[in-house]
Design a protein that fits this description.
single chain; mainly alpha; two-stranded antiparallel sheet
Length: 244
């Protein structure tokens, strides 16, 4: 695992220079129309995720009161800040990177290690920033919609970005060096708990949960992509979601 992480970290600068050179001047379309040519297979994968995750999500929702869920959510968000910062720098979004540093310092100190989102309460909201978004800024095409095991809705581009984010996560690497990879697994469990509780809440209010999850993913993702290239990061209404 350590060798894989080192290899990914060393390859990022090379990939960055290559992609920046190859994609210079490439138009970046943040409209991201829904492209689901493998819907039948994706529905099978989505159903498998539901079957595997539903019982766990029910337990987490039943045993995690609102205040506890909020603290887990804020802590998990704070642990993602170094990853967001790294991607903001790769995207040359310096203002977003500075805000991310400010959030991380504030919430890690005054917010008791990130248990409370003090920065958010003061009006400094969390910035977007992941390697899938970075690939978009570099001009890499989105690819088709795909449902990943556990992680759920994605595109080919975001799936590739997810691998880099998980392997090269600064917090995971730091905790792994200090306390061993068990600490990294612990951050993954925290992320899973937050993800599953939110997963259950969404499932409870939807009729066709597959379509709901796909639509929600595309709406949120368009907002992230627009933000990455300096456009308003407004999440549009489902009624205006473009499809093809």
């Amino acid at each position: 695992m350590h060798r894989l992480s080192t290899l990914v970290l060393r390859s990022i600068p090379v990939a960055m220079l290559s992609l920046l050179g190859a994609c210079a001047g490439v138009p970046r379309d943040a409209s991201l129309p829904i492209d689901d040519p493998y819907e039948k297979n994706n529905r099978v994968a989505f159903a498998a995720n539901q079957a595997a995750l539903h019982p766990v999500s029910v337990i987490i929702k039943a045993t995690t009161p609102g205040p506890v869920h909020d603290r887990l959510h804020d802590l998990n968000a704070n642990l993602r800040e170094p990853r967001i910062f790294a991607n903001d720098v790769l995207q040359l979004r310096i203002d977003a990177a500075v805000k991310t540093v400010g959030r991380f310092i504030t919430n890690s100190t005054i917010g008791l290690g990130g248990l409370f989102d003090i920065a958010g309460q003061a009006g400094l909201s969390q910035q977007s920033g992941d390697f899938g978004q970075t690939l978009f800024v570099w001009g890499v095409p989105a690819g088709s919609y795909v449902v990943l095991p556990y992680f759920g809705p994605s595109t080919g581009r975001d799936a590739a970005g997810l691998v880099v984010d998980e392997v090269a996560d600064p917090v995971g690497l730091a905790l792994g060096k200090l306390f061993g990879w068990g600490a990294t697994v612990g951050t993954g469990v925290l992320d899973a708990a937050v993800r599953l509780s939110e997963f259950k809440e969404a499932e409870d209010v939807s009729i066709d949960f597959y379509s709901f999850a796909r639509s929600a993913y595309y709406q949120t993702r368009r907002s992230d992509l627009r933000e990455a290239i300096g456009q308003p990061n407004v999440v549009e209404s489902p009624a205006t979601t473009p499809q093809r």
